[in-house]
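seq as requested:
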Amino acid sequence: MSFSKLMAAAGLATTLLAGTAQAAEPSHQDVRYRYEQVGDVKVFYREAGDPKAPTVLLLHGFAASSFMYRDVIPALADRYHVIAPDLPAFGFTESPARGKYPYTFSQLAKTIGQFTEQLKLDKYALMVHDYGAPVGWRLAVAHPTRVTAIVSQNGNAYEEGLGAGWAPIQTYWREPTQKNREALSDFPTPASIKWQYLEGVADKSKVSPDGYTLEGLHITQPGNADIQLDLILDYADNVAKYPEFQAFFRKYQPPLLAVWGKNDPFFLPAGAEAWKRDIPKADIHFYDTGHFALETHAKEIIPVIREFLDKNVK
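struct tokens:
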């Protein structure tokens, strides 16, 4: 075949492919990466699924971002509208410097609450992890009828769930001195973050380095370590509100699934089991892994989440 004929054939193939691409409908399961301006915070979020479908709002914790839900989002998007924002001071969300925005859990919840309203999320199932839990609990208490179901992956709401890893932090809560703050200076560091991802994991080769490397880089950005120390101090307010959160669980009996890394040094299995007191039908599952259970057990956990949502969210 001559060069000219070869090029003509290639052009025809390209035209046919382009026509096919134009004819194909965009897939709702494709993940979109977006920003929403909420006051003085530019919230980054991942979105997939049909906006007309039931919504699942995914809230990450420390030290993570919406990236932790990278496997969950497409696995749910065929039936659900999935939204996963980065909290202020995390991931790709752009938020003001320390002193220009109050880095408290109350304020994080206010920002994310406004975010849901701007996106017109009138009802949603919550999936929470770590810091995402007290943010989610505040959303639920403020608008209880909006929450259709709850999935917690090591997102705590009971004092018996607080592990030994909280001891130096609790000292800081009781006496918020500069000395006690400095004693926690190794908490917001790349080495500490890596430890949190690997602790309690039997086969550490199953943990991708992407998550802890990305978060390690983020924590080194100017001012971020101090913001994280501010948040860890304010976490005491979450514990003080545990009775209020538990009252919500008792009154509204939301369908609740806990998928828990049982070797988590921060949030103990007792914190998951405690839900049975307030929500007798709570579905509790434990996995032989650490704080970031999805990093090692996504294949086991995601089908459980899917079955729970399919049963409880219409």
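Residues 28-163+238-312 form a domain with the Rossmann fold fold (CATH 3.40.50.1820).
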